[in-house]
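From the pipeline queue, job 12 of 40. The input is one protein chain; the requested action is below.

Action: predict structure.
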Amino acid sequence: MSVELAVQLGRLSLPNPVLVASGTFGYAKEMAGIVDLAKLGGILPKTITSSPRPGNKPWRTVETTGGMLNSIGLDNDGIDYFVANHLPYLGSLGSPLVVSIAGKTREDFVAMASQLGDHAQVAAIELNISCPNVSGGIDFGTDPATCEKLVAEVRAACPHPIIAKLTPNVTSIATIAKAAEAGGADAVSAINTVQGMAIDWRRKKPMLGNVIGGLSGPAIKPVALRCVFQIAKATSIPIIGIGGISSLDDVMEFLVAGATAIQIGTANYFDPTLSNRVIKELPDALESIGAASVSEVVGTLHT
């Protein structure tokens, strides 16, 4: 049986549902000797901002049980540097390029999206409205009205498909997803990291320089699955599932929960070939349950 891996997220077409998450894959060049980049369903390079950012003070990462805390603070060289120095390479890889952007204001987001709209190499824009490690960075993802307005303004300013990346650090993530859908988002990605902290009890000091950071890795997978399931029940918008994915079984769980595609994040650090391996294994997994396409299993959880 021939199995169709291609998926559709609103106006965004992907060759397969396996993407690599922003902030865990550098600018792809770092992984070129390990990963067959052209076979990925999509690449999300490190989040960019309008101006260069030095990021947060160290420590920026701490290993935890079943995961990792990070407080990088969106360290990057700014959008102009990205367009001049990273975009030409990223656009040549043969894999859909989804550019992650973050802003302090709506005007920031709109201006960056408009600038990227001039570049055909960009397949889609992911709005990072959910970073817990930047002052103000999570505000757009916690208030439905603010989220809807931001998405609508960005969509009006940019021809590329728009993905809103949602935070789990809210009372109802489904409510925020509804707002993104109402604003015209092509898809939502869920979830960003879960707020957490680590403490050196002997020194009575926080281990992260920013005190609080974002927890990622296998420890947050149950939270992410719950969020995907709730969004799928409440909306019709396509979902990209993120959170603790480290095996083919994890991928299949997210698809059944309601995700049309997934992003591999923290696993890129400890198993960098996972994305390629999962893409290779996925057809057999789908065929084993009688599915001829990814879409046939999306949201098929029986409750």
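Job complete. The two ends are 29 Å apart (CA to CA).
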